[in-house]
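User: Hey, quick favor. My workstation is busy. Could you predict this chain's structure for me?
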Amino acid sequence: MDRLASTSALNLARSLYEAGIRDEPVLKAVANTPRERFLDAALGHKAYENTALPIGQGQTISQPYIVARMTEILLQCQPQKVLEIGTGSGYQAAILAQLVPQLCTVERIKSLQIQARQRLKKLDLHNIAFKYGDGWQGWPSKGPYDAIMVTAAAASVPNALIEQLTDGGVLVIPVGETSQQLLKVTRKGNQYVSEAIEIVRFVPLINGELA
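Assistant: No problem, here it is.
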């Protein structure tokens, strides 16, 4: 990361602290991650604004605040193995991979998955397993997971995902259609305790795969 980008990333981390993000490892990961590498060159000048931006295929790179907020919630259970649904640009995966020992990530749009994989390899993040497939189904063969993060809004909590949680595991997911809530769902044996975190806005979680 060049000096200008490094300064911009550090300033972004400081602004997230001011917005209420208090987890120091999360803020350090944001400061260490060159967000412009996850965008088309034409949008590079907006990389360190606290806003969502388009990445093609009707998808977006999430607002840095919500990336940090979801990450800090997920880290509360001290996960060793994490599943991400919706690799997208790869930015959220880059943050997570710096903070957890093992990350598995699923993307339903092939072109986005290929780009994200290349970007993350260039950043020397090698604790990530990639899958091209339907995020609604999770990745059962790699599970169970201590935590699962979903980066698109589901109409309801997918049963296939909560079933892949370990006991005590946490699912962080935006849920809703016209109005969306960020939920933290904790597995306690065969029961699931849901906690509403805040109002959010995400692209919808869609079934199936797209080349």
